[in-house]
């Protein structure tokens, strides 16, 4: 399954690259090409359900900040929303919540459930 290899390769490369940058106080990259942003968004779409599988009591929507792109990852009530750029969303989904520049919004119960959830593999 070629998409599995492309998902894992790009996601792992990006997340670990950002781990190194942020550990060395270089901050997030601000020079991502539109093609890379689209590829990262594709991986957010493909992997978010699995990476957020430990959330079961609330809904979860993910929004690509500044665009009309939105996906519903988990159905439930109330619903929390993650909002950010594709790379930052991917970091969040891979368990780098403290480093990711992502806004979490919605009713407090949903926000708390998402903030306390364990994301990642």
Describe the structure using short key phrases.
121 residues, alpha+beta, TIGR03085 family protein
Protein model, in words:
With 121 residues, this protein is α+β, with helices and mostly antiparallel strands. The longest helix has 22 residues, at 2-23. Helix 2 (34-51) runs parallel beside helix 3 (86-93). It contains four helices and four strands. Strand 1 (59-64) and strand 2 form a beta hairpin. Helices cover 47% and strands 17% of the residues.
Q: Briefly note the structural class of the backbone.
A: alpha+beta
Give the termini distance in whole angstroms. 19 Å
Helix content: 40-55%
Spatial order of the strands forming the largest sheet: 2-1-3-4
**Biggest beta-sheet profile:** 4 strands, mixed
**Strand portion, in percent?**
15-25%
Taking pLDDT < 50 over at least 5 consecutive residues as the criterion, the unreliable ranges are: none
**What shape does the CA trace take?**
globular
Q: Total number of β-strand segments?
A: 4
Give the topology string: H per helix, E per strand.
HHEEEHEH
- Return the average pLDDT rounded to an integer: 89
Q: What is the count of helical runs? A: 4
- Rg for CA atoms: 14 Å
Number of domains: 1
How does the SSE layout of this entry go?
Blueprint: H1 2-23, H2 34-51, E1 59-64, E2 70-74, E3 79-84, H3 86-93, E4 103-105, H4 108-116
Parallel strand pairs: 1-3
Antiparallel strand pairs: 1-2, 3-4
Short description:
This protein has 121 residues and is an alpha+beta fold.
